[in-house]
Amino acid sequence: MTSAANLQQPVDAFLRYLKVERQLSPLTQISYSRQLQALIAMATDLGIREWSILDAARVRQLAARSKRAGLNASSLAQRLSALRSFLNWLVSQGVLSANPAKGIRTPRSGRHLPKNIDVDEMNQLLDIDLNDPLAVRDRAMLEVMYGSGLRLSELVGLNCRHVDLAAGEIWVMGKGSKERKLPVGRTAVTWLGHWLALRELFAPTDDAMFLSNQGKRISARNVQKRFAEWGVKQGVNSHIHPHKLRHSFATHMLESSGDLRAVQELLGHANLTTTQIYTHLDFQHLANVYDAAHPRAKRGKS
Question: Catalytic residue at 146?
């Protein structure tokens, strides 16, 4: 068996574990697979025939090669994270006695705040000329994604039985197959109703809420393409993609409510620190809130 095959088999088993037991989203599985395939190629070049001989020095070599290949700090951190998770799994399987990547420091990257669309631009984007059923479908998808802060995988995976228009609620399947119930605003409910009235024209093959031209569940790639096209058609200055709508939902919710824990629940974040990246209010706003609310505030005032 070649060294590449020796390295590939455990990776294949790990990816099956992510799919079957961890039930990670398809996009996350693809990300893990891409990073680990790149590491296999580099490990083979370095003469590493088995994962069992991997040590901290060889992990540093893999990181150095990745950096020389042009990976920025964020991408390198993602690759090391994938390797660390894989090696943790090998430890659990008894292949390794310890994780050699555990002590390898992840490179620092600039903290890029999520970009969002302001409320005026969002209204401009959603003011779609509804001259065909696909435009109605797209308006409904945009309204639901922005109105409930869905992930792309959650939007694509939405089924008709998961939507209760009368109650203004939807059920979505998030990461790790965790289901959560979300409120849907009146505007999104209205456009879901418009779309459902036209949905049968596409001869649906299953219970998928949003359909392609062929009557099948719309793909993530198709959603990305349609959203980008609407951004251009509507004259919005920034590139429109699904995650930007989720960012905008989180930002606008936090700016209006300031309730970080409520937004955490709505977004389906397991960790509150994940939600905190959306709190990119300008400093003056934060300073004003601090001055008004903190008992030791009134900075610079005697």
Answer: no
Whether 151 is a known active-site residue: answer yes
| CA dihedral (198, 203, 207, 211) positive or negative | negative
Q: Under a CB-based contact definition with an 8 Å cutoff, are residues 140 and 210 in contact?
A: yes
Which residue among 19, 65, 175, 216 is the active-site one? 175
pLDDT tens per residue, range 163-185? 999 988 888 877 766 778 888 88
Q: Give the global pTM.
A: 0.54
**Which segments of 137-277 are extended strands (E)?**
163-164, 169-173, 179-183
Active site residue 278: yes
Distance of CA 25 to the CA centre of its chain: 9
Average pLDDT, the chain: 80
Query: Would residue 246 show up in a list of annotated catalytic residues for this protein?
Result: yes
Q: 112 catalytic, yes or no?
A: no
Tell me the residue type at 219.
Answer: S
Active-site option among 137, 162, 244, 278: 278
Closest CA to 153 of 220, 249, 245: 220
CA 93 – CA 79 distance, rounded (Å): 21
d(CA 46, CA 176): 35
